Amino acid sequence: MRILVIEDERALAASLRHGLMAEGFAVDVAHDGLTGLSLARLHGYRAVICDIMLPGLNGYRVCAALRADGVNTPLLMLTAKDGEYDEAEALDTGADDYLSKPFSYVVLVARLRALIRRGGAARPTVLTVGDLRIDPAERRCRRGDVEVALTAKEFAVLACLGRHAGEVVTKTDIIDEVWDQAFDGDVNIVEVYVRALRRKVDIPFGVRSIETVRGAGYRLVAVRA
What we know:
Layout: E1 2-6, H1 10-22, E2 26-30, H2 33-42, E3 47-51, H3 59-68, E4 75-79, H4 84-92, E5 97-100, H5 105-119, E6 127-129, E7 132-135, E8 140-143, E9 146-147, H6 152-163, H7 171-178, H8 189-202, E10 210-213, E11 217-220
Parallel strand pairs: 1-2, 1-3, 3-4, 4-5
Antiparallel strand pairs: 6-7, 7-8, 8-9, 10-11
Helix pairs in contact: 2-3, 6-8
């Protein structure tokens, strides 16, 4: 799941990016409000974490502009301020949740996952393809009754395919959804993760659900013997 962090404190932004990537998210970072607004308009993020006190454009105005544009991406507002009026203003401008600094990282991740669950009404909470069940919120995968252990990146690639089940997904599309904007490597890295996924979710069960469509990409389908 790709998210955006808009935070001008570079050390905090780097810490959030590192921690959230370890949780399986792909994370883009902006250090000012104008850049953050531009990225949020351009990409279909699953959630945005936005500081209130930002150079260029504060978090209130970023949030208000996104809502005015019809962008309903779940937004968690961060601020060093404390008080009910700041919280009320954040919520009134369209933020979905509010967290004061300093905050517990565990609480931030829990609230972020809750926002993604609530904000994903257009998408099923659990992705089901045949007997394969993918739960993005809990980051769990099951084939039938068997739990399948995946790394964070393997899960992200599988969830990407699951969100487009039955459709051909190109390597570039997977890179765009699973890796962040700083990625400048070879798109063939996707092949490595697809092979790893097949070893875990297909081969042990004697099935083929991750298909290669030559010259196009990959497709996740219901089980085929």
